[in-house]
């Protein structure tokens, strides 16, 4: 786990656990896991599920997360996917916004209940050709709520059976009036500055989860009204 930034370690563990432990873990806001003390927050939450005096093998594993070791080294893709938890990669080479099934499932799981109800899905079969020469057909189309640069908006994305994060296409970036300042590693979207993050593979990405998790001065009513009256440019 040492190959992953300390802020992402709790997120990485959450992606690998299952069953009741996973259900408990996803009750924690992604923003709280994505911190230096995220592992402590996760362990404290799981302590509510597994009592320390129980001789449960699962608890023994979870209570030693701080000493967690994975057999062999993490693959570059595993590190990349963990870094992109709740984030969108800015991909100007992508013709249509797309993400993997695992990414979108994890993102929807991390949403507050009120936002889960805003997710829209429908069947789709768009074809995508990836850089490694592999062709994939999308399994569905999903519309998810996000907040970018302080603007509540929805992202339309195709979903494929591939281990990839959300890739924001050139067209989606144009709709958001995105301006990239490569010389200074800065960007703006919706004519507002947005904080760029960097993956270990040097991709630009933006966080979609911190403010959607409720870190906002706006009331739910204001948010609902705003989303129902989105401008065309805010539908990305």
Short summary of the structure?
This protein is of the alpha+beta class.
3D architecture notes:
- With 236 residues, this protein is of the alpha+beta class.
- The protein folds into 2 domains: 6-67, no CATH class; 83-234, Cathepsin D, subunit A, domain 1.
- 31% of the residues lie in helices and 23% in strands.
- The protein contains 10 helices and 13 strands.
- The chain has helices at residues 9-16, 19-25, 30-33, 38-47, 57-62, 76-83, 101-110, 113-116, 170-175, 220-228, and strands at 87-90, 98-100, 120-123, 127-129, 135-137, 140-148, 151-160, 166-168, 179-181, 186-189, 192-194, 197-198, 204-207.
- It has a 4-stranded mixed beta sheet with strand order 8-1-13-12.
- A hairpin with a 2-residue loop joins strand 6 and strand 7.
- Helix 1 crosses helix 4 (38-47).
- The longest helix is centred in the first third of the chain and has 10 residues, at 38-47.
- The relative contact order is 0.15.
